[in-house]
Amino acid sequence: MTEAAIEEEKKELAKQYKQLLKISYRTLTRDDKKLIRSAFDLAVDAHKEQRRKSGEAYIFHPIAVAKIVAAEIGLDATSIAAALLHDVVEDTEYSLEDIERLFGTAVARIVDGLTKIAHISMSEDVSMQAENFRKMLLTLNEDIRVIIIKIADRLHNMQTMDSMPPDKQRKIASETLYIYAPLAHRIGLYNIKSDLEDLGLKFTEPEVYADILSHIKESKEEQDAYIDAFTKVIKDSLDAEDLNYEIKGRPKSIFSIRRKMLAQNVSFDEVYDKFAVRIIYKSKPENEKFFAWKIYSIVTDHFRPNPIRLRDWISSPKSTGYEALHITVMGPKGRWVEVQIRSERMNEIAEKGFAAHYKYKNKEKDDGGLENWLDKLQDTLENSEISAVDFVEEFKLNLYAKEIFVFTPKGDLYSLPKGATALDFSFHIHTEIGMHTRGTKVNGKLVPLSHELKSGDQVEIITSENAKPTANWLNYATTGRARSKIKSSLKDEKKQLAEEGKVVLARKLKSLKLNLDENTLNQLVVFFKVKTSLDLYYRVGAGIIDNPKLKDFAASRSNAFISFFKNRIRKPDKPEDVNKEEITEKFDQLVFGKNEDKLDYKMANCCNPIPGDDVFGFVTVNEGIKVHKTNCPNALQLQSNYSYRIMPAKWIDSTQREFKAVLTISGIDTIGLVNEVTKVISNNLHIDMKSVHFDSNDGVFTGKIIVVVKNKTILTNLVDNIKKINGIDKVTRV
Question: Could you give the domains of the chain?
Fold first, then answer.
């Protein structure tokens, strides 16, 4: 590099440093400036040899991230210093110990958190990627600032991604849309969320992005003229009330316009709410609510409101801390316009999220529900049982959800994601309550656990010591927290059954003169086509692999010659991962409807679903049931136009499936007989009784019982035990 260029860079650095201090949202003390200065100097020194792909000095990246952290997010000096140093440990000679010695534990802890997650692997291996996300989210609990700086880092990377190869751009942009934009939304950084989404779209669908952007630029003048016309109508009334306010128009983000175009299947010109009008007023905290409703009343005096589009987030703020009054009114030229009414404080919280809460700190709402959210998240995080891919899925569920507000019988208010069920609510209150839920009442009426809650519902949970999660609960729960707890509980139960199965297997093999050693175990795993030893034990414990099947295995093994060839053809001697600590599922059977019926079906050619995909059934006119993936290109059209022909469908593991059986019983009627029969059924843990019906006629009775069992062995045992009851004459399976 030439002398002149080096001089130019030095000048630019000095300018950037001054700018950083000037644009900081927080008031910086002398010590703060000192800390930032020394972090700045160290970062400049550490990165002096590095250049970015675009050719500029690498140091401009940490500075840009620090500027986003200081101005747009508004974090403190510790965070600004950590942002300047975020790549130092990763890329240079400096160690974490050096950072701690020079800048203290808080900065070192944040830098450590950022170093752990700096390089989310760009490989195609999705579970590796998910593992990294899990690692990243675990640092949330140590210090929320880690994740906020990571979001700022991601924003700057997205802004400067032009010099990267297209495949890399697509990869990073998809990841941004998948996890970073929802994270920014959840922490209340709405502006950054919009930037991340728009940039994500720019690199995943460049033509679409460019097209919408040019349309927005073209319609800018028209939009400004419209806002002027709108303002003129209400200006005099607002001025007459001596209000100190400003009215701004804000175009909706490119990404949200794109989403509307897709959802409503319309062109850009047909999207009616391409921008929102924002009225921001100055007010003392105690008068905020009063003024908000005063402005509401003035706006609705002049423009007719849409009654179902009123959102009052001042009385009950969103769990991100967002407060505002939103109304949609019929504006000039007969167009619907969204009007957002906010005080200056509310506006800052909407733009800065977390940081603004600290500026306006008061005892009750010091972090906009962030702590509460982190506690809930911690529950999912601690659940190490769940696979990384599941984990990221469950976590995503909690990020973008719209909210509803429900009450407990005592009148406490809770916010839940839209679409949450009564069962979700029980887990939301406390994991233990969720685990022991027996029933739920909504507004005083008993409802199923799958009942979808609405805003304003009063919900009471009925618990019982004996109640515990069943596989069906996964169909009733929608929130990440509830689902991960249920999955974990079911896994524990399966593991317990597997432990019992191991003992049973050893005993049964002994009677067949075989030992349960590693060699036999590998052969069993291959013979029964399961994946892990735990799968094998579980299926023995559940009675799926029974005596006759084990005898078949022993017979095949004794014929060594055949078995030698079979094994050569089938699989290598030792399957990989045989000792993995998990019970896997082989999705091999498709069932339909609430009762999980087996029906004939065909796979749709448009999306070619494979076992394990999320699917639904569509009843065609001539070809029976066609199965489509839920994200099939035709799914939206089918679901909106022919919703009555849609059948819920899901893949299950036939070896873990439960079956319905109907038993008829007859005998001599004696006192307490029904009690005896139900006792025999309920004493067996692996049987679920669905319905019971008894008729007595002059001392003789007949009965019909419907039970759900895992396999025939359990049913045979049940029939034998019922026959032993005094007075029972016949028990037959229908």
Answer: 3-204 (1.10.3210.10), 215-360 (3.30.460.10), 489-559 (no CATH), 589-652 (no CATH), 659-733 (3.30.70.260)
